Amino acid sequence: MLERGCAERSEQRRTASVETEPRRPSWNIRSEEVAQLAVVGAGYVGLVTAACLAELGHRVTCIEIDAGRLTALEAGRMPIHEPGLAELVSENSRNGRLRFTGNFANISDITSVFIAVPTPSAEDGAADVSFVREAVELLVQHARPGLLVIMKSTVPVGTSDAIAKLPAVLDAGIEVVSNPEFLRQGTALQDFLHPDRVVIGAESAEAMGRVARIYASLEAPIVAVDRRSAELAKYTANALLATRISFMNEISHIAMAVNADIDDVARIVGMDRRIGPAFLRSGLGWGGSCFPKDVLALTSAAARYGCETPILRAAYEINQLQREYAAQLLIDALHGIDDPIVAVLGAAFKPNTDDVRGSPALTIAKRLLGNGVTVRIHDPFALANASDIVAEIDCRPDAYSALEGADALLLATEWEEYERLDWTLVRETMRGKTVVDGRNVLNGVHLTELGFHYKSFGRPAHNGNGNGTHHHTNGSAPHIAGTSME
Ligand SMILES: NC(=O)c1ccc[n+]([C@@H]2O[C@H](COP(=O)([O-])OP(=O)(O)OC[C@H]3O[C@@H](n4cnc5c(N)ncnc54)[C@H](O)[C@@H]3O)[C@@H](O)[C@H]2O)c1
Question: Which end of the chain, C or N, has fewer beta carbons within 10 A?
């Protein structure tokens, strides 16, 4: 089904997913020294952290204030979808190394607490650290002297320093360490247990050593730095990854204008060892709970220190433009059709998660709904979360039911099952023939041969791309007013 370049990439992805597939034996990484730990927050980071630390052999109490989430966990149900997590939580709950509570009073025997609560964007784009402060206030009331507070939440530079200086924290003899998390949803267990590095930002050798010992059984370099550098490194990593994608999306518009193939361009550029192949794919751009808020938070923090951030602003704006560009492609294709229907395949911001925070699919769905389009959506895991955010979308239990009678299709999340659709059947079942491949993963040549109007993000006409006529010929992408960067 996939064209050659794509097939190769898909094969690489499959191999990668085999490599990152949970390998139970290799998780037998027991720590020699067992620590009494707590993790505050049972979300995408906190629950993974708690389960993995228990897997390393530590005794872990996971504190969650959301009653619904806590009840689910206590009953053995997963509040989030992350491959392999349910098994790890259930096994470590059974063997007594992992327990859940909503009560901070249960931490009296704990020596180190990881904070993994949200740091969402405030109205002005700055990171809202109120959840972190609230968690620390609750901890302080029940902490034993010498408690280590380990910051896993992504917090603006200086947050850990500021918390360390709070009178209540000083009085309780608490030390604060920055230990930013770099895991990716979808491969979170693998990333946590086999990280590229463990970053520890601490102000004393004793605190540094205590955190390093918690991770001692992992085969990963420990990078010991000060708290501020650790905090800035986390934002820098996310901002750089986001910028790479936005950069390639900018190049993809040039590729369309000159009829070059962005996939080939990315492949060639990625073969340069100074650059590397990751995060060079063009398409709908980045979403999720981290990249958008972290780019905004870094921009906002920089402004407070009087630093200009034109690159970060451009990366953010280009990302918004990609969604607008995709929505416009669909709206143009639906011109003149009565009661148009679009089928959106994928609601999660990326495959292998049920997380729809910052998802391009939902931004585009809202824009289409605003233009009088009926929007149907399918996702293997994220439908419930999607309908919580956009109630008007018509959620469908499988892709074919979403496509039946639709005038256009938007592939928004590259779940593998969408690459394996029976396109002959899809052609018969759809009313229209427009396919917008928001992730550049489908075989445009084959779809064109089948009679679809295939539109991609930077593939040339000879590879099936039919959006040349919609390309902006004035050399610049359209300007979108009203992004939160302005
Ligand atoms: N999601 C990721 O891929 C990822 C990766 C690296 C870093 N981070 C960072 O980790 C932090 C957490 O992100 P997330 O995606 O896990 O968030 P999340 O929303 O999935 O989970 C946060 C959890 O904390 C709970 N919580 C909030 N306040 C609490 C309190 N006072 N006591 C106990 N529980 C409380 C919430 O109910 C929720 O269950 C953020 O700062 C984020 O930027 C996230």
Answer: C
Q: Is the pLDDT of residue 472 over 80?
A: no
249, 322 in Cβ contact below 8 A?
Answer: yes
Q: Which of 238, 289, 294, 298 has most ligand 1 atoms within 8 Å of its beta carbon, as the pocket-test mutant?
A: 289
Query: What's the confidence (pLDDT) of residue 22?
Result: 39
- pLDDT digits over 451-466, tens only? 999 999 999 876 777 7
User: What's the CA dihedral at 320, 314, 285, 352 to 10 degrees?
Assistant: -110
- From 352, 337, 14, 63, select the one nearest 189 (Cα to Cα): 352
The total of structural domains in the chain comes to 1
Give the predicted TM-score (pTM) of the model. 0.90
Residue 201's CATH number: 3.40.50.720
Q: Is 385 in the pocket of ligand 1 (CB under 6 A)?
A: no
Dist CA 279 CA 88 (whole Å): 29
- Residue 342 within a domain: no
In this structure, the residue with its CA closest to atom 37 of ligand 1 is 66
Nearest CA to ligand 1 atom 41: 153
* Rounded (5°) CA angle 235-236-241: 100
**Residue 136 belongs to a domain:** yes
Asked if the structure places residue 117 within a domain, the reply is yes
Strands 112-115 and 394-395: unpaired
